[in-house]
Design brief:
about 150 residues; alpha+beta; Ubiquitin Conjugating Enzyme; 4-stranded antiparallel sheet; 4 helices; 4 strands; about 35% helix; globular; ATP binding; ATP-binding
Length: about 150
């Protein structure tokens, strides 16, 4: 299976010049699959956590967005129980100008700034709106319980 040059270039750059708090490692047997670990950003309820994600580059990439999902349980209004992520650049705002790196940085930023106004997990978003302090406490507890290594 030969990969487009673009994927090879992006992968090389990710490995040679990683972003702080983000590790993306391609699978040896399928270089379109990446194991990703994102560290919870400081000053966020996810601080201290290491969140595992999977990222897959579909055949149509870069014309289509990568498929990304959280494998680690997380209490976040924009990430549902299945690990799916509500992020505009993974859907209608995708552009071939974006890269794997951009996607992972955007997900890291989403951890710093949960948006209960555009939820994927409605129950979590409701909790966030009604009692933000308690929702943040829950997010911290989940981070300790599921994302500490």
């Amino acid at each position: 299976m030969s990969l487009p040059k673009r994927i090879l270039k992006e992968t090389e750059r990710l490995l040679a010049d990683p972003e702080p708090g983000i590790q993306a490692t391609p699978h040896e047997d399928n270089l379109r699959y990446f194991d990703v670990v994102i560290s919870g950003p400081t000053q966020s309820p996810f601080e201290g956590g290491h969140f595992r994600l999977e990222l897959f580059l579909p055949e149509e990439y870069p014309m289509a967005a990568p498929k990304v999902r959280f494998l680690t349980k997380i209490y976040h209004p924009n990430i549902d129980k299945l690990g799916r992520i509500c992020l505009d650049i993974l859907k209608d705002k995708w552009s071939p100008a974006l890269q794997i790196r951009t996607v992972l940085l955007s997900i890291q930023a989403l951890l710093s700034a949960p948006n209960p106004e555009d939820p994927l997990a409605n129950d979590v978003a409701q909790h966030w709106k009604e009692d933000e302090k308690e929702a943040i406490d829950t997010a911290r507890k989940w981070t300790v319980q599921y994302a500490s290594q």
